[in-house]
From TrEMBL:
SUPFAM superfamilies cross-referenced by the UniProt entry: (Trans)glycosidases
Official protein name in the record: Glycoside hydrolase family 5 domain-containing protein
Annotated TM spans: none
Length: 428
């Protein structure tokens, strides 16, 4: 057993957290509301407060077979499509989130009708038609369905291209956002702001094109990036600060893309490591890919990226990655501030947080042998004087393993290969 010392300093603060959650698609899962107990588990037990809601899985809903042209972009077609079962399920899910006060991004993904693309059939060229189509979606959700939302994600991994979305160059993405902003304003949707631009590759190319537009500086609310490997996430944080932007910085997708189903503990560890590193690099919110196992239309295959295993008869069972996420989601509510954690080189990866009420949470990932951890907490201001230690490892699932009076210094034995949370909050 080795030892390490860490010190929490609530006088040195960083970003304010805006929420944690998951990507979600209701198709074939809503089942007339049978999914509601599962959504309650994700919100009430896991602690998810934020979802990225994809209503259809493709952006070709107006002409899935690409047999028409932009003449289909008219009210009669919109009404038929948005009243179809897939969209009715999406509206019902969104309405349920509204009822629980859960925030969601309405976003699109996947291919578009071929006639919106150039000669290669992959690169979006008719930006006007694309903006018209997305405006119809947002307008219908707001005005026909009465849904409350103020974030819209108009692109998905368009730097990668099909099947995740049409390929869109950085300059074209900025132009498309400008067209969409103009149409939103004309449609009475001026309060809806954009999440830009849900990139697959981590670089600043798209953000640099967007920030060159004065209009988009105000219309973008969130710089949304995707993270499935280990790398520094500070460039976007620094870009936002350097350009004096009011944008938030979110991981709109993160996790691990193992599809073997044989490495669940590894996936839990990798996902936790990426989330913790993202938080240390300035990320303010994160949504794991994916809420539950489902048919992934992009790849025409069943995906097992979910926090929940999808079984027969609408049964959804938490995986190890669910409990790993719970170690953070449950104990770092929106409005919490990341506080400085100073540690020795031998210390595990850790991040500290304080709620507006003064409650403390320290989350860590111990990937090695058992650890004797000395923690200097100091006289942090909190009404709660009891500390609780929760552990997730190969055998425990966000288990409360001990609770004790808070002191300015404490010693803990952290099991090998474990995710640990020390908090003045409880799990209820």
């Amino acid at each position: 057993m080795h030892s390490a010392t860490i010190t929490l300093n609530d006088q040195h603060t960083h970003q304010v957290l805006e929420g944690f959650g998951a990507n979600i698609n209701p198709i074939k899962h809503w089942q007339g509301g049978q999914l509601i107990p599962t959504l309650d588990m994700l919100t009430d037990d896991l602690g998810a407060t934020l979802f990225r809601l994809d209503p259809y899985g493709f952006t070709d809903w107006i002409d899935p077979d690409s047999v028409a042209d932009r003449v289909v972009l008219q009210n009669e077609t919109y009404a038929r499509v948005y009243r179809s079962q897939p969209f009715q399920d999406a509206w019902a899910m969104a309405r349920y989130f509204n009822g629980k006060g859960i925030r969601f991004i309405l976003n699109v993904s996947g291919i578009v009708p071929r006639w919106m693309c150039g000669e290669d059939g992959k690169t979006l060229s008719d930006l006007e038609a694309y903006a018209d189509l997305l405006t119809s979606l947002a307008w219908w959700a707001r005005h026909e369905e009465g849904l409350k939302f103020n974030l819209f994600g108009p692109f998905n991994e368009t730097d990668l291209g099909p099947p995740e979305g049409p390929f869109v160059h950085a300059e074209a993405a900025a132009k498309g956002l400008e067209l969409l902003a103009e149409r939103f304003e004309r449609a009475g949707l001026e309060d809806i702001r954009f999440v830009a631009v849900d990139q697959a590759h981590y670089n600043l190319d798209y953000l640099q094109s967007i920030v060159a537009s004065k209009k988009l500086r105000e219309k973008v609310a969130v710089a949304g990036m995707h993270c499935y490997s280990d790398f520094s996430l500070t460039p976007v944080r620094d870009f936002i600060a350097h350009n004096e932007l009011t944008w938030s910085y979110w991981l709109t997708e993160y996790g691990d893309l193992d599809q073997t189903g044989e490495r669940e503990w590894d996936v839990a560890v990798y996902s936790t490591r990426r989330l913790l590193r993202g938080l240390l690099d300035g990320v303010q919110a994160a949504m794991v890919w994916d809420a539950y196992d489902n048919w992934h239309g992009h790849d025409a295959s069943w995906s097992i990226y979910g926090l929940l295993r999808t079984g027969s008869k609408n049964r959804y069972t938490p995986k190890k990655r669910y409990y790993a996420a719970k170690q953070i989601y449950r104990f770092v509510p929106p409005g919490s501030t990341r506080i400085e954690v100073s540690n020795e080189e031998s210390a595990p990866l850790t991040a500290g947080f304080q709620t507006p009420q003064g409650d403390l949470t320290l989350v860590g990932l111990n990937e090695g042998e058992p650890l004797l951890l000395e923690i200097a907490i100091g006289a942090l201001n909190s009404e709660h004087q009891t500390l609780r230690l929760f552990i997730t490892n190969r055998t425990e699932n966000c288990q409360l393993v001990s609770e004790f009076p808070r002191g300015e210094k404490i010693q803990l034995t952290i099991p090998a290969e474990s995710i640990f949370t020390l908090t003045t909050l409880d799990a209820g």
